[in-house]
Specification:
The chain is of the alpha+beta class. Helix content is about 45%, strand content about 25%. The chain has 5 domains: about 1-180, GAF domain (Beta-Lactamase); about 190-290, PAS domain (Beta-Lactamase, 2-Layer Sandwich); about 315-420, Beta-Lactamase, CATH 3.30.450.20; about 430-590, Alpha-Beta Plaits (2-Layer Sandwich), CATH 3.30.70.270; about 610-870, TIM Barrel (Alpha-Beta Barrel), CATH 3.20.20. It has 31 helices and 32 strands. Strands 24-25-27-28-29-30-31-32 form an 8-stranded mixed barrel, surrounded by 5 helices. A 6-stranded antiparallel sheet has the order 3-2-1-6-5-4, sandwiched between helices. Helix 1 (about 1-20) runs antiparallel to helix 2 (about 25-40) and helix 22 (about 660-680) runs parallel beside helix 24 (about 705-715). The chain starts with a helix and ends in an 11-residue tail after the last helix. It binds ligand C2E. Ligand C2E binds near residues 636, 695 and 755. InterPro entries: Biofilm_reg_signaling, Diguanyl_cyclase/Pdiesterase, EAL_dom, EAL_sf, GAF, GAF-like_dom_sf, GGDEF_dom, Nucleotide_cyclase. This is EAL domain-containing protein.
Length: about 900
């Protein structure tokens, strides 16, 4: 009983050792002692399996000799390996009653005998899962077998051993696990942490500290929201709901580092589940700041490349033939090739027949030499159409500096190129007709003159000006004018040879270069053909129109200073041709040159006179045929040339008309005439009407009426005292507009007379439509009126017809009393001419008026008619020197 009690106590002690996780050796040795106390003479030992369960190592015993222990430790588990090796092998009780004779102890007999060990009973120790953990053995110093109670005790001891070993193994496994976990936690390069359910940090590793910048002691107990950006907090809190349900989740968040910078984290949260209850969250936060920055940069870069309006091609320089690995949308748009069609191919499919070989060579060199290049080359789209590609090629290098790729940026400059081409075309061509312009013509001229001089050929320049083009353009509009110019250009072109150059210089000026003439006559024959072609009718819309041309011809002569001189010579000759009449041509000669030079000099002098207002105004009286009274004056401009003296207006007025200088002269004349009339009235000479000659250019000016009104206003002359003299020619072009202007003049109170009447081509019947009050019979009819019966008949006809129309008739150029008498006899109303008075300056006119008044005063007594001839030839009167 006492023995049993002792045994139970010993067992409890062992169980306490086990429960308290005392070292295994202590527990196992305690078990050995218990069993040794129960089986007298027995020596207990416990051996445990190695990890692989192939050997028995770690021998625990209190009384086995150490040398024996050392010798058997590590014995292999096997059927013939002593009691323990076999027990572990067969997983059953092995009884070796007499070791010395037991063959299973072969190899160990001597060892056992040395230590006086003669019997051994061994029992396998197994785990709760039936794994062999080791063996429990009892040795005896004499042979013998166990009794039943011995067996029972051994089994009890084995159970205790199993319990202790298994417990110790579990504890070790647990510790190992914990260490593993801790290692993972501690050494994890990412921030690893745990939060409680309220979101406070409960644990955090070192990485967590470096990611957040907070020392661990400050981090523990900190609420996660202290780190998250305000706009992220709510989102993350809502995610934690998922963790509550036991689910893991992942999100990205930007936190604020303790130093203030933003840290971009990729966080995975997992629930901490204990006893089926979530008690918090684990978190693993990966610092993605750098990667995020790179990704953002990359994304922006990718978007920019994608969205670029320039085509972008990337090729792989490491692969044979440098194949395309990327093209953007713009490349597809520009070339018409889809991405799939080009990837893997070399870019050469973009080349074609017009691709510049030199540009290609540069491109190849840049690829071989691995340097940047900017080159413009002609590429081809998928549909075969060419485009201009301004290509930037640059090599892309890796970290070691080796070129891995090439990037090509295409800029489709086709529009710019075509614009440039258009610009250069327009710079050298006339937009309306498509003919060469002056600059291109001059280029050809330089070149062809050089060749002609070298080869001794004849060369000619023709200057062709359309006759009567301006009136058509003015009256029918520019569209009609343009059509005529186009048709004329076409006709001229059709007559020329391929080597000739046809250019348009001005509105209706065409210039032709004939560089390869065998004889000069060829040019003349061509000009005749050209004139004939130009003369043919032009059909424009409903109009059938006729125009002519005047041509000047200049041949290449030896004494030419510059080729351009030929154009000027042809121009001068054309001017002479124009003077000859319509549809004429003229060759340049040196006298034309002189004439033109003189004209040029005169033009310049005239300009100086205009600027200095270096003109005088003379007045020629007009006398009533019946009353003999002065009824008005004609204002006639005089220019005293500094060298040539007084020049006839018949000389410089047409020049001024040609050069446009007439505008300024006319305005001066009008203003001066109005002023002088006001002065005469103011100085008591009476109110006289002054006739002013009107130039066609002045009449057609847009602001003609406005200007007139302004002059009248400024000078204070009443419109009743102004008369404008128009030639028939003015009324011939754009008659409707001219008549409208005449009506306006009449409304203003200004009188209008037709000057040089009878010299125009038009029928007299148009007179009845005109709101005019007077006609002036041209001097040429008056001159021979008494000697030539035709002129006499014409003059009589004009007077009669004019009177029927209610018009006053003025006869100008009366030089003789017979002429006066004839005209008076046939009812002419007003006389003008040297017979009565020459044109004179205002001061002389005042004298004239005074004298007339004096003579008239005397006549009142005598009733003798005024001797106009005597007055006119009074030596004190001005001699109109220019006449
Ligand atoms: N042989 C001869 N001649 C006579 C006689 N009586 C007058 N004359 C001249 O005949 C011309 C009359 O002027 P016109 O026919 O309008 O012809 C004018 C007119 O068309 C133009 N002219 C003169 N002054 C002006 C002006 O201020 N403006 C414009 N637009 N043209 C003007 O120049 C032309 C010539 O003017 P002038 O040389 O001043 O010549 C004047 C005058 O001096 C005569 O009995 N015998």
């Amino acid at each position: 009983m006492a023995r049993t009690q002792r045994h139970l106590r010993a067992q409890q002690r062992v169980q306490t050792l086990i429960a308290r996780d005392q070292p295994l050796e202590e527990t196992l040795k305690a078990i050995c002692r218990i069993i040794e106390a129960q089986v007298p003479g027995g020596i207990a030992s416990i051996m445990l399996c190695d990890e692989a369960r192939l050997r028995l190592e770690r021998l625990y015993s209190v009384n086995l000799p150490q040398a024996y222990c050392d010798a058997v430790e590590g014995v292999a588990i096997g059927p013939e390996n002593g009691a323990c090796g076999r027990a572990a092998y067969i997983r059953d009780f092995v009884i070796c009653a007499d070791i010395a004779r037991d063959p299973r102890w072969n190899g160990y007999h001597e060892l056992a005998a040395q230590h006086g060990l003669h019997a051994c009973w061994s029992y396998p120790v197994t785990s709760s899962s039936a794994q062999v953990l080791g063996t429990f053995a009892i040795y005896y110093h004499k042979p013998g077998e166990p009794t039943r109670s011995d067996r029972r005790r051994v089994i009890e001891a084995v159970e205790l051993v199993s319990l202790a070993v298994e417990r110790e193994r579990n504890r070790r496994a647990l510790k190992e696990n914990e260490q593993r976990y801790r290692s993972m936690f501690t050494y994890h390069p990412d921030a690893v942490f745990s939060l409680d359910l309220k979101g406070y940090f409960t644990t955090a590793n070192a990485a967590c500290s470096s990611v957040t910048g907070y020392p661990l002691e400050q981090l523990i107990g900190l609420h996660f929201s202290k780190l998250a950006q305000p706009n992220d907090r709510e989102r993350i809190e809502s995610l934690y709901g998922a963790v509550d349900k036991g689910e893991a989740f992942r999100y990205t968040v930007t936190i604020r580092h303790r130093e203030g910078r933003s840290v971009y984290l990729d966080v995975t949260n997992l629930p901490i589940v204990v006893n089926d209850r979530v008690i918090g969250f684990y978190g693993i936060a990966k610092d993605m700041t750098e990667r995020h920055r790179q990704e953002t940069e990359l994304r922006i870069l990718q978007r920019s490349v994608e969205a670029s309006i320039n085509g972008i091609v990337i090729t792989d320089a490491r692969q044979p033939d440098n194949p395309i690995i990327y093209v953007n949308e713009a490349f597809e748009r520009i070339t018409g090739y889809g991405r799939d069609e080009v990837l893997g191919h070399n870019c050469r499919f973009l080349q074609g027949s017009e691709t510049d070989a030199e540009a290609m060579a540069q491109l190849r060199q840049a690829i071989t030499g691995q340097y940047e290049l900017n080159v413009t080359l002609c590429n081809y789209r998928k549909d075969g159409s060419p485009f201009w590609n301004n290509l930037y090629l640059s090599p892309v290098r890796d970290g070691k500096g080796s070129v891995t790729h090439f990037i090509g940026i295409q800029h489709d400059i086709s529009e710019r190129k075509s614009y440039e081409a258009k610009l250069s075309y327009h710079a050298s061509h006339d937009a309306l007709t498509g003919l060469a312009n002056r600059s291109l013509f001059e280029d050809h001229l330089m070149h062809d003159v050089l060749l002609a001089q070298r080869h001794g050929c004849h060369l000619a320049v023709l200057f062709l000006d359309l006759d009567d083009f301006k009136p058509i353009n003015d009256s029918l509009g520019h569209e009609v004018g343009d059509q005529i110019l186009i048709q004329a250009a076409q006709r001229l072109g059709e007559e020329l040879d391929p080597g000739d150059t046809l250019a348009r210089f001005g509105s209706d000026e065409f210039v032709i270069l004939l560089p390869e003439l065998e004889r000069e006559e060829e040019a003349i024959r061509l000009v005749e053909r050209l004139l004939a072609r130009v003369r043919r009718p032009y059909r424009v819309g409903e109009h059938e129109l006729y125009i002519g041309a005047s041509v000047g011809i200049a041949f290449l002569q030896e004494e030419l200073e510059s080729p351009v001189e030929l154009i000027q010579q042809a121009d001068m000759a054309m001017y002479r041709a124009k003077q000859k009449g319509r549809n004429a041509w003229e060759c340049f000669t040196s006298d034309i040159n002189d004439e033109v030079n003189e004209r040029m000099a005169l033009r310049n002098d005239l300009q100086e006179a205009i600027e200095a207002e270096n003109f005088e105004l003379h007045y020629q009286p007009l006398l009533g045929a019946r009353s003999g009274q002065v009824v008005g004056f004609e204002a006639l401009v005089r220019w005293k040339h500094p060298i040539k003296g007084y020049l006839s207006p018949a000389l410089f007025i047409p020049l001024a008309e040609d050069t446009g200088q007439i505008g300024a002269i006319s305005e001066w004349v009008l203003r001066q005439a109005c002023r002088d009339m006001c002065r005469l009235a103011a100085e008591g000479y009476g109110h006289f009407r002054v006739s002013v000659n009107l130039s066609p250019l002045q009449f057609r000016r847009a602001n003609f009426l406005g200007n007139l009104q302004q002059v009248l206003q400024e000078t204070g002359l009443s419109a009743d005292y102004l008369e404008l003299e128009l030639t028939e020619g003015i009324l011939m072009t754009d008659t409707a507009a001219a008549i409208e202007t005449l009506h306006c003049l009449r409304d203003m109170g200004v009188e209008v007379s037709i000057d040089d009447f009878g010299t125009g081509f038009s029928s007299l019947s148009y007179l009845k439509q005109l709101p005019i009050g007077k006609i002036k019979i041209d001097r040429s009819f008056v001159c021979d009126v008494t000697t030539n019966r035709h002129d006499s008949a014409i003059v009589q006809g004009i007077i009669s017809m004019a009177h029927h129309l209610g018009l006053i008739v003025v006869a100008e150029g009366i030089e003789q009393a017979q002429q006066r008498d004839f005209l008076a006899a046939h009812g002419c109303d007003v006389f003008q001419g040297f017979f009565f008075a020459r044109p004179m300056p205002l001061e002389k006119l005042q004298d004239y008026l005074k004298q007339r008044a004096a003579v008239l005063g005397q006549m009142a007594d005598t009733t003798t008619p005024v001797d106009d001839e005597a007055l006119a030839s009074d030596p004190s009167w001005p001699d109109d020197k220019h006449q």
